[in-house]
TrEMBL record:
Keywords: Isomerase. The lineage of its organism: Bacteria, Bacillati, Bacillota, Bacilli, Bacillales. This is PhzF family phenazine biosynthesis isomerase. The keyword Isomerase applies. GO terms for cellular component: cytoplasm. One of its GO terms (molecular function) is isomerase activity. Pfam families: PhzC-PhzF.
Length: 297
């Protein structure tokens, strides 16, 4: 039997047991892929990250849900880099490169004006694809009526590393009524059956927030809902400047998420034009919660 130390950090918050929990294994090179998957399943968080050496970047990160490996995960990246910085495991420089299955991404660490570092993560350029499925079935799959959908904005698949379906909703009060039927998603999301579903609206609880969202997991991931989502927040920012307000470019777009399930958190997104593409960065902080011991037989 092996006993593995997993660090529990909450991302996109400075308060333990808020934001989005991530499991972090600092010596990921000690485990094969099957063991990583078993560890992630036992931890049970939406994502557990494994830190490994890299020949082409400062470090490599692999991300596992309880059900499968992910190409990229925003909140787990923020939490992992924060943990590495806090434990003195990073080189003394402002920008590091991380190797992921989505590519090599630069991560900046800003600690100049605050005691708690802010981790700034560049994502891959935003992409969008049409959704041609049933709006009625989609609404029912997240527990609302078709009339709750905002017809003034398009329902689109979006990605800055991971595909999610962006679903505009008219009113904030509807979010507390949502109960997802995740097992129905693949039959409705025919273009990208393994995508997650991300309803959002322009009404917010917090005055500083630009948008409010929830994030319902693909059934293949083994989880139901992601409390505060980095990759989906990034593509929400790109959606905002493309379809809602192009004056939002180069300005902080604040995404709030998690209130309905008691895990409040915020993600700051900055979107800019670069080489005819939308350049997306997210930023946030994290907090250590506890060490978890996992036993592999």
């Amino acid at each position: 039997m092996k006993t593995i130390s997993v660090l529990h950090y909450d991302a996109f918050t400075e308060h333990p047991n808020q934001g989005n929990p991530a499991g972090i294994v600092l010596e990921g090179e000690k485990f094969n892929e099957s063991e990583m998957q078993k560890i992630a399943e036992k931890v049970g968080f939406n994502e557990t990250s494994f830190v490994l050496p890299s020949n082409i970047a400062d470090l490599r990160i692999r991300y596992f849900t309880p059900g499968h490996e992910m190409n990229l995960c925003g909140h787990a990246t923020i939490a992992t880099v924060f943990a590495l910085k806090a434990n003195g495991h990073l080189p003394e420089k402002e920008t590091i490169l991380i190797e992921t299955r989505a590519g090599i991404l630069p991560i900046r660490i800003n600690q100049k004006e605050q005691s708690t570092p802010s981790i700034i993560m560049k994502q891959i350029p935003a992409q969008f694809k049409e959704f041609n499925g049933s709006r009625k079935e989609l609404a029912e799959a997240i527990g609302i009526a078709e009339s709750d959908l905002d017809v003034n904005q398009p329902i689109l698949y979006g990605s800055t590393g991971i595909w999610t379906l962006l679903v505009p909703i008219k009113s904030l009060h509807v979010f507390s009524q949502m109960v997802p039927k995740n097992d129905l998603f693949p039959s409705i999301l025919k273009e990208i059956p393994n995508a997650s579903v991300h309803p959002f609206c322009l009404e917010t609880f917090e005055g500083e927030a630009t948008m409010h969202g929830r994030h319902f997991s693909s059934p293949f991931s083994g989880t139901i809902e992601d409390p505060v989502t980095g990759t989906a927040s990034g593509v929400m920012g790109a959606y905002y400047v493309t379809y809602i307000n192009d004056k939002g470019k180069n300005q902080p777009i604040v995404i709030e998420q998690g209130k309905e399930i008691g895990r409040n958190g915020k993600v700051s997104v900055t979107v800019s034009d670069k080489d005819d593409q939308l350049d997306v960065e997210i930023s946030g902080t994290a907090v250590f919660v506890k060490e978890i011991k996992i036993i592999l037989e």
